[in-house]
Structure formats: C-alpha cells, structure tokens
Write a structure and sequence with these properties.
alpha/beta; 7-stranded mixed β-sheet; 4-stranded mixed β-sheet; 14 helices; 37% helix
C-alpha cells in the first residue's frame, strides 16, 4: 500500500483510542531503532515517550526478534491453567523472584497492565473472603491516578472523563487526594500529614473491616509524573498494615528501571502485598504483564480450586521468552543506572532552557520519567489553558514525540537507551515551542 492508501485505510477502518474520528492521523510509523522512529514518508523522529512508557531497551532490538522467533519454532503457545505450564513461563517467574523486592515470590502472568490491575483488585477481595472477611470489598484509590482501561482498574482510575458514559462501574471504590507537592493550594499544612489524615478519616468512616486494599501508582504517571514526598508511601503502608488493608503498588509504568531503580518499591522503601507490572517487562516487544504477590497472599487465594483470575494468554511462552531476553539486556547494559544518570541530565537541560519562560511552572523528574507543568502564571501556579495541540507542534516542528496526557503537562518517558545528545535534542525541541506559548495556551 502507498502512503496515501494507508492514510485512507486508517481513516476508513482503524479506531484510535482517545482520538475523535474526525481528527486526522498524525503519523504512520514503519521502522524504529534505538530512540528513533521513521514514518511512512521516511521522516525521522526522536521518541521521547517510549510509545506508552515502555520502550526500555529501545526500538529495533534484533536480540528480541530472535528470541521470539526461536520460541515460536519450539512452542508457540500452551496454557498455564490447572496443572499445565511451559518452561519459559517457569523460567520467567524464577527470574522475577530474583529481582523483585523481598517478599514478592509468586507471579500470575497477564497480557498487559489493564489485566494486571483488574486481576490485582479481584485477588485482594478474594483474599479477604477466603480468610473469612467477605465484607472487605472497598478499594481505595486516588484522583489523577491511572489504573488501566478495563472495568475494575478503570473504576479505580481517578479521571472522571475516562469513565463518562460507561454506566455503572465497579462498586465500593473511593478516590482520595493525591500528593502533588507543586499544587500547594490543594492542601493545608504538611502535604503528607494532610493525605494521611484523609486516609485515616476515610478508614474510620468506611470501617477498616470493610476495606480490601489501596491501589496506587508510586508516582502519578498520566497525572504528570508527580512524585510524592519521600515519607508518603512508608507512612501510608504503616496505616494500611495497622488495619489489615492490602497495599497494591501499580508499577505498570515505573517497573523495570523507569525511575532509576528496578522497581519503585525499592526507591520508597515499602513492601507491597501485590505489585502490578507490564510495559517494561518486554519493552513492548510482546504483550505481557504480571500480578506479583507475596507468598501469604498467593497461598490464601490458591489454597483451593476457585481463584477467579486467569486469562487465555497467562504465561504465554513467546512473551515469556522475550521478557527473559529483555531483562538480560536491561541488566547487562546497565539501563537502570543509565535511567537515573541520563534522566537527571535531561532534567538539567530542560531546567536550563525552560525555567525562565513565563508559562513554565515546574520541571520535575524521577529517573527517566519527566514532567513539564505549564501554568497561567508562576505566582498562582494555576494550569495554563491549552486549546492548541502542543504535542503536535513539537512533533511537526521539531521532530520529537512527547505526550500531553493532561492539557497543561508535557510528559516524557524516553527509552532508557536515550543518549546525552538525544536528551539535548528533546530539551531544545520542547523549548522551541514552549517559548512561544501565549497566555491563552496557543503557540505563537
């Protein structure tokens, strides 16, 4: 098909998530290598998003193509339901047990983050029911959090617009205030104290014997790469433990090196009961996720036949083979350390080039996750209205792909193989457009 044929077929047949039907497709990509992408017309772009937060080892890795092909030739699929399994799924589970935080020993594989989040919520409720506390059904989440697009995790997602028009959602889900250090007007007094007081008051109101779990992203990803105060998660964990409430860490975005540690649980010094992962486990080369849990949780939910969680592609051998090779690359190429180093460098370049612009409120980063918050003015810190397509302007004018998941926040999650020269290119591209922002959010 020619480029014109592809664009016509795209408009005629392909449904794009989060894109109105009448909006034209921005680019059709055909090739990738490292942090670079090429579209159908041969134009080169720098990928500063990692697709959807996931291209840890970069695009076009021959090693991963070879791992997938070799596994397909040996065994393309067999189920891990009941007493069956396959060697690659077992090998991946054993590998994960070596690199996950202490206490995480058991793994249920899924096809991605939305399945992982849904499975985690079901597992938490089922865990309490099996222990004789079926009344523990409430799930605590937070506003501006993202936990997938399925019904369970989608209900836990804290963006009202994402659930508009969907009818009744999962019952017994409540959203708390997220810690956002930059938005000082939302809180009174110490930020962590404010959030902890709200959490404890909520537990008292619902009754601790009625709450199954709290699910949280270690840092708010779609919400703008917002990191909490260092004492937030350890103190949240302490409160939950005191009431027998499970902690679910949603590491779909943060897992496998994104923050400069293999997992965010290490960074914040917490021991979740359940962890959800996907994305970076294969760097996107195969759809794969996992619900990772303590032996205590797994032994309760699996002590008899009936655990109501399982998917056709649980432990898919090709996905597992790719994940094993992907983890080898991450370790042998030192990409976790590189995320911390190059992420800090990119942050420094962004600050140097953006800090004096009137509509740049904060440039923040944790490892290779960065956010640029755009404000109407620096004093009020109120969000800048953005009726224009700033990500489209950066892509078309400067050849760099960024994401604007909230109307006033530019989010970056580049491949962990990003070079210093490429970091310079990202910073310059953003500055070239943000420096021309008008008070109404349009680009001059």
């Amino acid at each position: 098909m020619t480029a014109l044929d592809l664009y016509a077929a795209d408009r005629a047949h392909l449904v794009h998530p989060h894109l109105p039907t009448a909006t034209p497709t921005g680019a059709i990509f055909t090739r990738g290598k490292g942090s670079k992408l090429w579209d159908i017309n041969g134009r080169e772009y720098l990928d500063a998003t990692g697709g959807l937060w996931l291209a840890q080892v970069g695009h076009g890795r021959e090693e991963l193509a070879e791992a997938a092909a070799a596994q397909i030739r040996r065994l393309e699929y067999f189920t891990t339901f009941w007493e069956f399994t396959n060697d690659r799924a077992v090998e991946l589970a054993a590998k994960l047990a070596q690199i996950t935080p202490p206490g995480i020993e058991k793994f249920l594989f899924t096809s991605g983050g939305s399945e992982s989040d849904d499975a985690a919520l079901k597992t938490a409720r089922y865990y309490h029911a099996e222990r004789g506390e079926p009344s523990r059904t409430w799930i605590l989440s937070r506003r501006n959090a993202y936990h997938g697009a399925a019904y369970g995790g989608g209900t836990a997602t804290g963006f009202a617009a994402m659930n508009a028009g969907l009818g009744p959602l999962l019952p017994d889900v409540l959203h708390l205030t997220p810690p956002h250090p930059y938005r000082t007007w939302e809180y009174s007094g110490d930020l962590t104290e404010f959030c902890l007081a709200e959490l404890e008051a909520t537990i008292d109101r619902l009754g601790p014997g009625n709450i199954a779990a709290m699910i949280g992203e270690p840092i708010l990803g779609v919400g703008g790469m917002v990191a909490p105060p260092d004492d937030y998660w350890p103190r949240v964990e302490e409160v939950l433990r005191s009431h027998g409430i499970l902690l679910i860490f949603d590491e779909v975005v943060t897992g496998f090196g994104r923050l400069g540690t293999m997992f965010a649980a290490e960074k914040y010094g917490v021991s979740p009961d359940i962890m959800c992962v996907a994305k970076g486990i294969t760097s996107g080369y195969q759809p794969l996720g996992a619900v990772m849990m303590t032996a205590e949780v797994a032994d309760v939910v699996n002590r008899r036949e009936g655990h109501p969680v399982g998917y056709t592609y649980c432990g898919h051998p090709v996905a597992a083979a790719v994940a094993l090779e992907n983890l080898r690359i991450i370790e042998e190429e030192g990409l976790v350390k590189r995320a911390a180093e190059v992420g800090a460098y990119l942050h420094g370049q962004l600050v140097a080039q953006l800090a004096d612009f009137p509509h740049v409120g904060e440039v923040r980063h944790t490892g290779m996750g960065l956010g640029v918050e755009l404000v109407a003015d620096k004093e009020s810190r109120r969000p800048l209205p953005m009726p224009g397509d700033i990500s489209g302007a950066i892509r078309e004018q400067a050849g760099v792909i960024v994401r604007v998941p909230a109307p006033h926040i530019i989010v970056l999650s580049p491949p962990l193989v990003l070079t210093h020269a490429e970091a310079d290119q990202v910073a310059s591209a953003i500055a070239s457009v943000v420096g021309r922002l008008r008070p109404d959010g349009t680009v001059g």
